[in-house]
Amino acid sequence: MAFAIRNERPGDELAIRKVVEQAFGQSTEADLLDALRRSLALSHKIVIVLGDPLYYSRFGFERASNHGIDCPYQVPPEAFMVAELVPGALAGYRGVVRYRPEFDAVST
How far apart are CA 72 and CA 37, in angstroms? Predict the structure, then answer.
């Protein structure tokens, strides 16, 4: 099954927030996304997630450690995953991920 991913467009914010709240059963992650949206231009070449490998692997995510990318938290290595949105975007990147300060509110 193939999935098409399009860039977020103005006006998508509320719908995205509702999906995130339903997916996580709380508003913490949606608040994080809102904070990131305010601080970043959302033009990513890679996406890194910490989550269920069975779920995320369906969307092309694989272990970040396969690319020399490590999580700063003590988590199962199979749960820390990465996907390239642009082929070759991970070339030359290695090390431990540093999260933006907005993540501090949800890392506890």
Answer: 22
Alpha-carbon distances, residue 46 vs 26, 86, 94 (angstroms): 25, 7, 13
Does residue 95 come out as left (phi exceeding 0), alpha (psi in the -120 to 50 range) or beta?
left
Ranges of beta strands (E only) in 7-70 are 46-50, 62-63, 69-70
Percentage of the residues of the chain whose pLDDT score is greater than 70: 89
Q: CB atoms < 10 A from the CB of 21, how many?
A: 16
Q: Residue 80: is it exposed, middle or buried by C-beta count within 10 angstroms (0-12/13-18/19+)?
A: buried
- Residue 43 is predicted with a pLDDT of 56
Edge to edge, the sheet with strand 80-84 lists: 46-50, 80-84, 62-63
Q: Each residue of 10-57: pLDDT tens digit?
A: 888 899 899 989 998 999 889 888 877 776 644 578 889 999 999 999
Q: Are 102 and 35 in contact (CB under 8 A)?
A: yes
